[in-house]
Amino acid sequence: MTRASLDKQPHEVASMFDDVAERYDLTNDVLSLGQDRRWRKEVAKAVDARPAQKVLDLAAGTGTSSLPFARTGAYVVPCDFSQGMLRVGKRTNTWLPYTAGDATRLPFKDDVFDAVTISFGLRNVQDTDAALREMHRVTRPGGRIVICEFSHPTWTPFRTVYTEYLMRALPPVARAVSSNPDAYVYLAESIRAWPDQPALAERLKGAGWSKVAWRNLTGGVVALHRGFKES
């Protein structure tokens, strides 16, 4: 079994997700106490995909996150660098155009997509700023980015409880339901090390995005960041 380190070497992270692909969606549902479904609904609202629009769903994994966009009539491209995740997704949703790709070197032309979104994946990219610049490059002028990522709870007492859950409760639960529980130790550590909401907003601005704002979900356990590419 593979566990990535916090320097996030791409081959380590991809291999780690290959290992957990078969039960990934089930494990996320259990570990988030079902909240992941609510978070994904909020992502779909924020992206606001429309018929015939082109949507890039990065770190799409098995494609579960892509389905709400497809249901609107948008053309959605699920992209991930884990071949294992893509294989599992392809078995279920054969019609989706699954694409292998690294967020820091996207295999798409400039100004292609109306919207680019990434849920719970930016944290696992080795070079966050390069990924944000690449997402900006492939988005058309006037297009938008939506990032859903674990963040920092805003209420201090709850933040303490949440941190304890991540480091103490999450690994034993993962051992019960995941095919690679060590991967979830890495995921807990990567959540603790991730920038807070204002810091991520500044990185979006630094990559060229404008009108950057964020909204907290579940008390800041998760944050939705949104920005636009100037016309």
TrEMBL record:
Keywords: Menaquinone biosynthesis, Methyltransferase, S-adenosyl-L-methionine, Transferase. The keyword Transferase applies. S-adenosyl-L-methionine binds at residues 62, 80, 102-103, 119. It catalyses: a 2-demethylmenaquinol + S-adenosyl-L-methionine = a menaquinol + S-adenosyl-L-homocysteine + H(+). PANTHER family: 2-METHOXY-6-POLYPRENYL-1,4-BENZOQUINOL METHYLASE, MITOCHONDRIAL, METHYLTRANSFERASE. One of its GO terms (molecular function) is demethylmenaquinone methyltransferase activity. It comes from the Bacteria. Gene3D superfamilies: Vaccinia Virus protein VP39. HAMAP family: MenG_UbiE_methyltr. It is an enzyme of class 2 (transferase). Its EC number is 2.1.1.163. It comes from Streptomyces werraensis. The lineage of its organism: Bacteria, Bacillati, Actinomycetota, Actinomycetes, Kitasatosporales. Pathway: Quinol/quinone metabolism; menaquinone biosynthesis; menaquinol from 1,4-dihydroxy-2-naphthoate: step 2/2. GO terms for biological process: methylation. Methyltransferase required for the conversion of demethylmenaquinol (DMKH2) to menaquinol (MKH2). This is Demethylmenaquinone methyltransferase. InterPro entries: SAM-dependent_MTases_sf, UbiE/COQ5_MeTrFase, UbiE/COQ5_MeTrFase_CS. Belongs to the class I-like SAM-binding methyltransferase superfamily. MenG/UbiE family. Pfam families: Ubie_methyltran (PF01209).
